[in-house]
Amino acid sequence: MIGETRGVWRTKEEIPFLASHVLESGAFFYSKANEAMQAYNAPGATRMHITPKKPVNSQKQFEWMWPTVIGTCIAAALAMGIGAPAGWSQQQEEKPHDLELSRGVRPWEFLPVTGMRAGLLGNESGRMEAWVYPLKIFRDFHLKFHTEGRILAAEALARTVTVRPESATILYAGDTFTVRETFFVPVREQGAVILLDVETEQPLEIEAVFHRDFQLEWPAALGATYLDWAAVQHAFYFGEELRKFSALVGSPTATVPHAEFQTNYSESHESSFRLGPTAKGKERKVIVVAGSLEGRAAAEKTYEHLTTSYADLLRESAEYYRDYLGKTVSVGLPDAQIQRAYDWSRVSVLQGLVTNPYLGTDLSRDIALLARASVRDLLGFSDAIHFGLPLRSMLLGIFPARAWHSSSLVNTSGKTARFHTKFRRGRLLFSGSRIIHTLMLQQTRLLFTSSR
Fold it and tell me: Phi, psi (5° rounding) for residue 315?
């Protein structure tokens, strides 16, 4: 069979079958025994003289060979267990739902963190846009570090990215400090949380910067939107003339707010606030994003809940994905990396579920495309395999071939970017995998319905 890799046709590689040595050894001994029996029964063959008093059945002469064959097969199986590939033993020892993955940052790669009611979408440099479906709150969110009289752009210091089903973490490292930025969206809350774990030797202050983009998803629109500072919540308040759609973006330690402005001689589209200085040592800062389609009071309630209960919500989200993987249809695979890829694809299907207050809950085509374009395009953590199986591969019922390519157009921060995902591995075909995928979707919907 032939696959295509960047316009060059190459022969696909076969996945070695671990039990092949056992089968080959069995076939070898069977063939030798069969040859001996044929030689014994052949016309004119020389036979040992047997007296009539001691008749011997020809089958008994070879009965001693079958225990030998069985013993040899068992020995070969044990030898295979000792010399099995590392991936096989790793899968047996590895926790079944430990999907944490980490690698160096690729600033151009897409990075989504989504729940059923909200999402943070951006790239691995840390620039994000925030949604509380179907409301977009801001775009081009990023950090600035103030230390030793200098202002450092966070994207220039991004080192590694770590992803889990419930969150994504970017590590920023400077000469005298490190900051771990964790993006987290609760499964059923209308908001998101950004955790900043700081460790520094010199005084450091973090500034959060964003562009207000307070609008409904296209083609709908809001008129006369505005931005104001809410001193009680230490947050920016997003509003519109009908006072129906609202949002809050801030932090319990937020200070020094700078709002966007426009005059006849100057303008700035950036808004920002600082999170307070860290003199030395370790400290955690929290940024909260909350939205509502029911007015300001509901947004303030969500903002307060996320601010005080984000640790519990993070644990609940992690448990939610573990329970999903444990209670729905699954396939056991002999390779640990392919197993992880398969589990990530199941998580991607679940994260494609979106709740729109006006339309209900169902799989979103847009979120499915985003998942297909990233992690788990993001999950190209190995030159040999890209862990994120695109959603399309499950819809087709086929894991991608050795040189499978896919691409999709997604819009982030007002710019259209093209992302590619590749999967380099031997081809796996599952008979009935479309049925498995259908069952997964049905169980996903049933799990959601029963949990409401």
Answer: -65, -40
Dihedral angle, C-alpha 298, 142, 366, 333, nearest 10 °: -110
How many CB atoms sit inside 10 A of residue 173's CB? 14
From 170, 207, 109, select the one nearest 418 (Cα to Cα): 109
Q: How many whole angstroms from its chain centre is CA 29? A: 48
| Residue spans of alpha helices (H) in 49-155 | 65-82, 86-93
Nearest partner of 190 among 352, 302, 108, judged by Cα: 302
Q: Which two tokens stand for residue 93?
A: 């020892």
Question: pLDDT, tens digit, for every residue of 140-197?
Answer: 999 999 999 999 999 999 999 999 999 999 999 999 999 999 999 999 999 999 999 9
Alpha helices in 328-390 (DSSP H): 336-351, 365-373
Give the rounded distance of the alpha carbon of 356 from its chain centre: 23
pLDDT tens across 266-299, in order?
899 999 999 999 999 999 999 999 999 999 999 9
pLDDT level of residue 422 (50, 70, 90 thresholds)? very low
Domain ranges of the chain: 18-43+55-84, 101-313, 326-451
For the domain with range 101-313, which CATH number is right: 3.30.450.40, 3.30.1330.40, 3.90.228.20, 2.70.98.40?
A: 2.70.98.40
CA 341 to chain centroid, in Å, comes to 9
Residues sharing a CB contact under 8 Å with residue 349, sequence separation 6 or more, in sequence order: 363, 368, 391, 394, 440, 441, 444
Mean pLDDT of 418-426: 33
Token readout for 139 is 């775009």
